[in-house]
Design goal:
Length: 206
């Protein structure tokens, strides 16, 4: 069984292209998509925060004052957490926030996202969207036929013209079939795919 994806050309007229039901006819799985998005955002966290414990801060090698007669609480080091510039009690250390998800679940989740985009008419195919120059002005003209506040372009070849022409447009994001992520897909109002990228997506998710 095959499904139809709208194809838009430069003149604004439209036709359709057939895609596999196995990839673009997946049922909507909200729980799995949420897991995919959470996993991606967690993996993007730096996790580089680092603090020092009392054994790692410098100084404190000598008793700060004598044990008795000062009227103060006894102290053996200035590296304790109650001292200024002392160590932290539960010091934060570099860590990874990465969450595990097997390949089969990932494939099913991405299929579910693409299928829902197609059902909501947020997925279109266009080869004319690829800019012939590096000028943002010329690229904006091509985007006039695309309705959406946030546009994701998935191209089989992200060339220099596409990078330079799109980088100053805040509502446009560019990706390849290999690099596209679930967060970009679910947040885009319109996903524009080239025919070559569409074929790559089908091959990867089949």
């Amino acid at each position: 069984m095959t499904l139809q994806v709208p194809v838009i050309n430069g003149q604004g007229s439209a036709s359709t292209i057939e895609v596999a039901d196995q990839v673009f006819g997946q049922l909507f799985n909200e729980t799995l998509i949420h897991q995919l998005v959470t996993r991606y955002l967690a993996g993007a966290r730096a996790g580089t925060k680092a603090q020092k414990t009392r054994s790692e801060v410098s100084g404190g090698g000598i008793k700060p004052f004598r044990q008795k007669g000062t009227g103060r609480a006894r102290a053996g080091t200035t590296r304790g957490p109650i001292w200024r510039s002392g160590g932290v009690t539960f010091a934060a250390k570099p860590r990874s926030f990465e969450q595990k998800l097997n390949k089969k679940m990932y494939k099913v989740g991405i299929r579910s996202i693409f299928s829902e985009l197609l059902r909501q008419e947020r997925l279109v195919v266009s080869n004319d969207i690829m800019p012939t120059t590096a000028k943002t002005k010329d690229f904006n003209q091509k985007l006039k036929n695309i309705d959406g506040k946030r546009i994701l372009i998935i191209a089989d070849d992200v060339n220099e013209n596409l990078i330079l022409a799109s980088r100053n447009i805040p509502y446009v994001e560019v990706a390849t079939a290999e690099s596209v992520n679930p967060v970009s897909l679910v947040s885009a109002d319109k996903v524009v795919v080239t025919s070559g990228a569409l074929k790559q997506i089908e091959e990867r998710l089949a």
